[in-house]
Write the structure tokens for this entry.
Amino acid sequence: MNSLIPLFVIIPLATAFLIPIIGKITNYFAKTITPIILLALSILSISFLFYGKHESYIIGGWQPVENIPIAIYLVLDGFSCLVLCITSLIGFLVSFYSISYIKKYTSENNFYALFCLMIAGMNGVVLSGDIFNLFVFLEISVIASYALVAFGVGKNELEASFKYQVLGNIASFLILFSIALLYWQTKTLNIADISKVLQNYDNSIFLTFTQIILITGFGLKAAIIPFHAWLPDAHSSAPSPISAMLSGVLIKAVGVYVLVRLFFNMFVFTYEIGVLVAVLGTLSMIVGSLLAINQWDIKRLLAYSSISQIGYIMIGFGIGMMILTKGGEASIAVLAIAGSLFHMVNHSVFKGLLFLGAGAIEFRTNTRDMSQLGGLSENMPITSTTSLGASMSISGIPPFNGFFSKLIIIIAAIQGKFYLLALLAVIVSIITLAYFLKFQKSVFYGKNKNYKNIKEVPFAMSFSMIILVILCIGLSVLAIPSIREVILDQAVSSLINMDHYINLVIQY
Amino acid sequence: MIVYILCFILFLVGLYGLITRRNLIKIVISLSIMEFSIFILLVLIGYIDGGIAPIIPENVTNPTYVDPLPQAMVLTAIVIGLATTAMLMAIAIRLYRKYRTFDIRDIKNLKG
Amino acid sequence: MKGMSLIVKKVAQLIAGLIFLYGIYIMVHGHLTPGGGFAGGALIAGSYILAILAYGSDTIKLKKEETGTSLTESISIFIALMLAVAGFFIGTKVFFNNYLPSGKIGELISAGVIPLYNIFIGIEVAAALITIFLALIIYKEEIEE
């Protein structure tokens, strides 16, 4: 039995507990060990991705009894491997960036301990094959994020954190409620086993009720539009590296990932669910971008644009679901889902970069108000160039990665005859370009009014931003079909073939 | 059946408190009530009429056990609930220190 | 923070030790009776909190206590994790492997590693609850000053 999968949970967890102990002796331990472990984990996950490792791990060695799994399983397939790569890689860059950034706060050790705890929770959510264990890991990561949002202990941070906690707790209750309902009906907690039981289950009203509650719960975590109220406050009040982590990774790992995993691999999804996902996605995409136009706070603008981009991801999955249930061409569904996964990877890269850029601006000027800023491109060339790259990428300008992922989703929408969705996606892309032009113009170009003699940010911060902007261009290669087949199609095939996931857990 | 309805009513009591109360501490209490209504539902799911605790007894043959898994789940969820409540309380006290009040109508910095 | 009246102090003095012992009992018998690490740890923390509430303490002393309890918490949860990680190297080489002999059902020393988990989780929960209590009380004291 391969013993490397649980390392993704053990190592960050052990680091989180070690930091408060060794941090009493030396201050350098926390800021050196966190980037090192995350770099090691990202190398490990990328190697898993290229070798195409698909396997499950039984915790405690409790073998299945009569083909019914009784232990907690950790499952690694193409999709979870992709999300693991995002978590570890963005986590590494963000923790490296934090070395310089977090100096303005006290108690650096607590920051890194909570950061590792959050990473451990997210990796656990992504790997877990047991629905209650998934809930526990989800709570670990979101409780750490509640504390991290309030890390600045100013008025805004505390208020945002309280709001985030109240809505997050309601989401957790709904998720726990739906887990209770699922257990009531199926008498098992293993995702693969539940899916086997649900295949010959006929109480469809009950099932729909559970599905709606699950969508509400994880929709709250993923901030899809009717449930988005906490996101702009929480993501704009947190310290910038944490905003990058929350916007780039957390809402995907605990929101979109779980939603997609449960609906593709656990429930037998229906056409109506596909329509619901697509409608929620369209709503998020349009309303998020319209709300973003009017913002003058940099991070608030970026937070609203996160909502809008999550909409794109949901639309791709929705189109895939609708085509699969209507019995249309499977290749179009594969294209749509691959586009969504591609956009998910891209969004975590460029949104992470944009938040890090906003953090760099705040680090030097101590303001986030766009009307106060201007003409920073001369003083901060690296921040300016990297932000420009990310803005072009998010608004879909070739040759950046955002263009290709949006193109794939739009092509899939047109081939699947969802012309309205394709048109809306193009329009929202133009609106995105508009508000990112406003961001670029008012921050980096124009007249420098108040901040004449500021310097470029320190090395650790600019290093992370340069790596991310290289990734922004480099990830475009995923659009080339032969490379796409290796990485993205693995993830897609493990999603749309239900038996693949079940066979990983239950060997017949 | 009546116990499930009572459980649901408890959930609604928590929801009512969450919506109508203006005090931070009372909001936290309402959240706890909602949480515990779900815990009660979980325990009820595992309950079997006439079942005993799932510990192997000495002289009884073929005993009926209650389902122990929901109980384990509730214990885990209580631990999580403790963590979230402590976190909420800590933030509420910090907010009190900044604003000198627990009233949410006075704590309104973030908008839009 | 001031202490309470003489009656409360005397009763707390009588009861706190008993609660502490009961907590240890619940913690150690976690694999035999209902309860276990969390319940036992909560009882131990309860006895401690009772003593602090009855007798009162000053802020500086409380802060010192908090440093100690948070350190205890980190160390004990780390040991519990390491017990689980040790399963990687012993026996069937799986995470969370129960590698100690399981003994006879119903005896105090049985069930392999589970009593050890219970003990360390109990210490962790006790330390964590006391830390939370102390942190909240320190905030309150600082507000009133």
